[in-house]
Design goal:
208 residues, D-Maltodextrin-Binding Protein, domain 2, five-stranded mixed beta sheet, 11 strands, 35% helix, elongated
């Protein structure tokens, strides 16, 4: 078996390594302290990439397989083949606002076009509001989404949440819940055909 796999750096990396190790793949290179972003362990090669870039490496064939969150796949809309839900990294998209303004917000929910919403995921946010037949001004931020309503940058936020702890600490209350996300195994369309046997063996070994 000789496969190149793009892995998401950040919160998904540790459980990904644990899954591969539990499935008895050689992950020795991933466990070494190193700043290298391209590693080889046995018959597998690993590309360590930003979560939002994993699908790009897979789409263009730089990697045969990839492990990324469903949120990144939805936001990037890359041409990749989704093979399996790996069952970890669960989170959910939520719409949230300051607790003191929640009642007023709920009363005028059908007039969301008057509202500004901060998010790291403009494409998914637009899809969410379109599905509800609503409009909102979407402000893209790269971090500290919870800060936006506090300082008046936006009325609400649309973001991922797993425990809700950060929301509570910032006096934010969930107004709505939508898409659920988790880590997914994806494949390059060409690799999925040319390396079908190898990929099938890889999937069968995964203990998910």
């Amino acid at each position: 078996m000789s496969l190149k796999i793009a892995l998401s750096k950040g919160v998904l990396l540790k459980p990904t390594i644990e899954l591969l190790k539990k499935s008895e793949f050689d992950v020795s290179a991933l466990e070494e302290e190193s700043r290298r972003l391209y590693l080889k362990s046995g018959t597998l090669s690993f590309i360590l990439a930003r979560p939002s870039d994993v699908a790009t490496y897979v789409e263009y064939g730089a990697a045969d397989l990839g492990i990324a969150g469903k949120d990144a796949l939805m936001e990037e809309s890359r041409e990749v083949f989704e093979l399996a839900d790996l069952g970890f990294g669960w989170c959910q998209f939520i719409l949230a606002g300051l607790s003191k303004s929640v009642e007023n917000t709920k009363k005028s929910y059908d007039q969301l076009g008057q509202y500004r919403v901060a998010t790291k995921y403009p494409s998914i946010t637009s899809m969410y509001f379109s599905a509800k037949g609503l409009q909102a001004e979407i402000i893209k931020l790269r971090g500290s989404i919870e800060l936006a309503p506090i300082v008046g940058l936006a009325d609400q936020i649309y973001d991922l949440s797993s425990t809700g702890k950060t929301l509570k600490e910032n006096n934010l209350v969930v107004l709505d819940k939508s898409y659920e996300c988790s880590a997914r195994l994806i494949a390059n369309y060409v690799s999925n055909k040319l390396k079908a046997e190898e990929i099938e063996k890889f999937i069968k070994r995964l203990k998910i």
